[in-house]
Amino acid sequence: MHFLDDLEYRGLINDLSDPEGLRRLLSSEQVVLYCGFDPTADSLHIGNLLPLMGLVRFQRAGHRPIALAGGGTGLIGDPSGKTVERSLNPKEVVDSWLENIKAQLSRFLDFNSKTNPAMLLNNYDWISQLNVIEYLRDVGKHFSVNAMLAKDSVKARIENKDVGISYTEFSYMILQSYDYYYLAKNHNCKLQIGGSDQWGNITAGIDFIRRTLQVPAYALTFPLITTSEGKKFGKTETGTIWLDAEKTSPYQFYQFWINVSDQDVIRFIKYFTFLDRNVISGLEQAVASRPEKREAQQMLAYEVTSLVHGESEAAMARKIAGALFRGELASLTESQFKDALSGVPTTSLGGEKKDGMTLLDLVVETGLSPSRSRGRNDIESGAIYVNDAKQTDPGLKVSAVERLYNKYIVMRKGKKNYHLVILEP
Q1: Separation CA 337–CA 408 (nearest Å)
Q2: β-strand partners of 15
Q3: What is 3-222's CATH topology?
Q4: Which of 74, 184, 254, 289 is positioned for an S-S bond with 39, CB 3.0–4.6 A?
């Protein structure tokens, strides 16, 4: 199977500038390609994962990837997909973010391969060397303002009279094109990949290379991802899912993928894992015939967490998830316990109030039941669990309940409605 056929099977190709030309090129030589990652925060997020894995896929197919850290373009701001002007961050802030992102990029690619080692470059190294006259005469003269105005990312902002676009962001396309030109000239780079919102910027770079270097260049973009409900991928009620374990713990990361819907899970397995067609076909059948087992979600969560955080963290996340599912909270360490219940609604109780409370008082206090009459019914019907054990006595004293790690009680209504009670001294 040709490499592009696998990408097509996985739904990873949104646009190709010259499908037949790129197919021949990939079949005839080791291709140098690149993808850029601007430091817009102190970590990459899962919205960056698809193009980053694109580089990994190309390297595994024998080609040579360049991960381009945007130390220069990150100071400017890409208008693609943005309805308002970005805030310009100080260089020292961007530089600190850049160091974090470079470390994250390094975890995915093989920089020590004997046949096709990856490269990690920073476009600040060459963009910062451009002077104004050189930029205007040798670079800017090759870009038609009419063509730039027709690009979707610019056009949308121009048409919004309340927002508009600054010359700073308007020039971003030229700088990204210069990146492609520089890499083509100095590293024989022939392909740029990225999200579909980058299509205009990438094709502008192709035109610039053809005019100045008179060599062919290619573009491949991946689809921008939304869920089957039309929601933005990678956003949850608690915020963005980051690749940095300090910002999104491996367990929280794992849980994001576990919670993927049946409608999305096979598509995401194709996007975000390296599982082969036979395995994917089996998982697709599992979703259709026994969706309640969520086998595909478990495989997706383990595979992606292993890729981003390593197998040991993925195994630990799976253990924590299993303990919650099986009602084995006591088998976790306190650190794992707190990670498992991060984001769960929490109530702190202290003093005499907690000592005199009954279970009925507690289910109302925590909001698990909206009223005392409903709470009594929930308890007596067996819907309320305390530390994984079903409790049916509304008069049970909270003081008689065993505390996990000497301070916690975990309340649960039904299968998934958790509430953490912290008992203060």
Answers
A1: 10
A2: 221
A3: Rossmann fold (3.40.50)
A4: 74
